[in-house]
Amino acid sequence: MSSWFSNLNISSMMRRSKSDAGLAMTPRPPLVQAAPSFDLDCVPEVDGESEILRMDEILFLSNNLPARVLGADWRLTYSTSLHGYSLANVYRKFQQERSPTLIAVLDTNDQLFGALISENIRMDEHFYGTGESFLFSLRPKRQIYSWSGENQLFVQGTLESFIVGAGDGHFGLFIDSNLYKGRTQACETYNNLPLAGNKEDFHIKTIECWTFS
Q1: Greatest pairwise CA separation for the chain in angstroms
Q2: How far is residue 102's CA from residue 115's CA, in Å, rounded to a whole number?
Q3: pLDDT at position 22, please?
Q4: How far apart are the C-alpha atoms of 167 and 152, rounded to whole Å?
Q5: Phi and psi angles of residue 144, each rounded to the nearest 5 degrees, phi first
Q6: Residue 32 has pLDDT above 50, yes or no
Q7: H/E/C letters for each residue in the chain?
Q8: In the chain, domain spans
Q9: pLDDT grade for 38, boundaries at 50, 70 and 90
């Protein structure tokens, strides 16, 4: 394990809030793949221009969003190209947001993947969120990884990192404080495969965070 990752206090990141237990939903099957609908009534309005997501990929993700935001407009709330490579900046940008958030990551190998979290991005020493959250990969393979029901370690944000999914010291998606390095592993929360192909560690080219209204 590379040094930048092994220096982290893993045990402290594995704590979760007891209040999260009441927020969990019935788990869906861990692997779900759906073809996007091209019905014009289902095409969302997109406020902001994505550097990394194509419209067919937006449609694919839109058809897998939680029911409460199906058909909602997409808004580009944070982009590393516009707002910089800083997790602290992300937290500041999201202080007034009250929406599920989609995080799309393009790595330096041009693999595209990310997560949908059921709430706004925020700092919290405990894990938060609900079973509406999921991981996804888009390139080279499209796949949705829904909540497995095995634990409730959905999302955690600290000054050092942002994590989606965990279990037994593994993280579904881990992003460092500089939005530069990341790690993706199979984890219990989503029963996912690593999102970035055969390598667990990746370097970030671009991150976009989208909210819904």
Answers
A1: 49
A2: 6
A3: 45
A4: 10
A5: -110, 130
A6: no
A7: CCHHHHCCCHHHHCCECHHHHHHCCCCCCCEECCCCCCCHHHCCCEECCCCCCCHHHHHHHHCCCCHHHCCCCEEEEEEHHHHCCCHHHHHHHCCCCCCCEEEEEEECCCCEEEEEECCCCCCEEEEECCCCCEEEEEECCCEEECCCCCCCCCEEECCCEEEEEEECCEEEEEEECCCCEEECCCCCCCCCCCCCCCCCEEEEEEEEEEEEC
A8: 29-212
A9: very low
Which amino acid is present at 48?
Answer: G
C-alpha of 186 from chain center: 14
- Region class of 168: left (phi > 0), else alpha (psi between -120 and 50), else beta: left
Q: 95: which 2 tokens?
A: 């202080």
The reply to whether the predicted model has a pTM over 0.90 is no
